[in-house]
Design a protein that fits this description.
The chain has two domains: about 5-240, Ribonuclease Z/Hydroxyacylglutathione hydrolase-like (Metallo-beta-lactamase, Chain A), CATH 3.60.15; about 245-390, Rossmann fold, CATH 3.40.50. Helix content is about 35%, strand content about 25%. The protein contains twelve helices and 23 strands. The mean pLDDT is about 95. The structure holds MU-OXO-diiron (FEO). MU-OXO-diiron binds next to helix 2.
């Protein structure tokens, strides 16, 4: 099969994983994913940029055969196994090839992938390697999303190989972005689930690559960008400190009492033109929830009480929020309990203990006994008014 040409002597040899449904046994993949790998053929040396996930290895090896080039260098922008998994086999196929990467990635390639350190040449930040008529520059971009991450700039062709940076879990036959709206959603989901905990570090790395005159961003998942400004601007927005006039309510309800409270609070907030995104945790796609948290100012966790605890699905949601670290400003909880009124404060402490990395202001939570009654709705009015006032101050409404 002919190789997909990005620029003269630069080829896309990515593998689509159309049927993969979940990543890290955690992240739903509604659109599959791809593991992107590239060949850069210079007049003297040929470099392979990243490899693919081990189950797709044979496809990559076949494409390398089809290309008919001798691989001299394997650039490893990031050691996670979805990109490094085939490196050892490629080294067997091309015994004189060397891996080019940074010291941290070298360490991980051995620890995670058993890649022999003897096969690896360490590069420095901003180091340049010539392939003859093509030049690669390595730019360290740590914590996008691991400490080892770097990007590689192909100067003559103005292509920035970005690793996971700007990636999206999207299996597609389109080499370049065709539909910016579809790609925006996929990239935002990817950012929310994988990159958001490292928002501040990513901001620093955006500044580091901003002044490159790149015309193409080629990440290691999803489509490539012929309009890099589109995704650069989206990342600038997502990683900024700005939040939107939005409240996110993930909730779980055993007998609909918590659901009724969520619906009541939602209406009160929407009446004041606050956008509310609620997620029933019995069926919610956690990727959609994570995406909603990229911009939201406030998070309200809704839960039924189970014995003396928050519902396990609410505990899962709280743990996820703690891991992905959204930039929310306010957080609270609502819900319903049965017989254990004296244990409600303990449940509130349990919820707080699940989110130590969230620095948001905690608004007094409210839990109703059983079905919400008039007095409970009055308490929800109070909570709604407090949220409305805080949002007014935040957004100068
Ligand atoms: Fe796509 Fe962090 O690996």
């Amino acid at each position: 099969m002919p190789l997909k040409k990005i620029r003269p002597n630069v080829y896309d040899i990515s593998s689509n994983d159309w049927n993969r449904k979940v990543f890290d046994q955690l992240i739903p993949l509604p659109n599959g994913t791809s593991y992107n790998s590239y060949i850069v053929k210079g007049s003297e040396k040929t470099a392979l940029i990243d490899s693919v996930y081990l189950p797709m290895q044979n496809e990559l090896l076949q494409k390398l055969d089809d290309a008919g080039y001798q691989v001299d260098y394997i650039v490893s922008n990031h050691a996670e196994q979805d990109h490094s998994g085939s490196i050892n086999e490629i080294l067997k196929k091309y015994p004189n090839a060397k891996v080019l990467t940074n010291p941290k990635c070298k360490e991980f390639l051995y620890e995670l992938n058993l890649t022999s350190p003897d096969k690896i040449i360490e590069v420095k930040d901003r180091e340049i390697i010539s392939l003859g008529d093509k030049t690669l520059e390595f730019i360290f971009t740590p914590w996008v999303h691991w400490p080892d991450t770097m990007v590689t700039y192909l100067k003559e062709d103005k292509i920035l190989f970005t690793g996971d940076f700007f990636g999206s879990h999207l299996a597609t036959d389109n080499m370049f972005v065709k539909d910016e709206k579809e790609t925006y959603c996929a990239a935002k989901r990817y950012y929310a689930e994988i990159m958001m905990p490292f928002r501040v570090q990513i901001r620093k790395n955006l500044a580091k690559i901003e002044n490159l005159d790149a015309e193409i961003y080629a990440p290691s998942h999803g489509s490539k960008y012929q309009n890099p400004k589109f995704i650069f601007d989206a990342y600038s927005d997502w990683t900024s400190d700005n939040v939107k006039n939005e409240v996110v309510i993930p909730y779980i309800s055993m007998y609909d009492s918590t659901t009724k409270m969520v619906e009541y609070l939602t209406k009160k907030l929407e009446d004041k033109e606050i956008t509310v995104k609620s997620f029933d945790l019995s069926t919610a796609d956690t990727g959609e929830l994570a995406m909603a948290l990229v911009d939201a100012a406030t998070l309200i966790l809704g839960t039924s009480m189970v014995v003396s605890s928050a519902h396990p699905k609410a505990i899962y949601a709280a743990s996820l929020v703690n891991i992905i670290k959204p930039k929310i400003k306010y957080i609270s909880a609502i819900g319903s309990y049965g017989w254990a009124a004296p244990l409600v404060p303990k449940m509130v402490e349990q919820i707080k203990s699940l989110i130590p990395s969230i620095k948001a202001e905690f608004i007094e939570p409210y839990f109703a006994k059983g079905h919400p009654k008039e007095c409970d709705f009055i308490s929800l009015d109070k909570m709604a008014n407090e949220i409305i006032e805080k949002h007014k101050n935040l957004f100068y409404l």
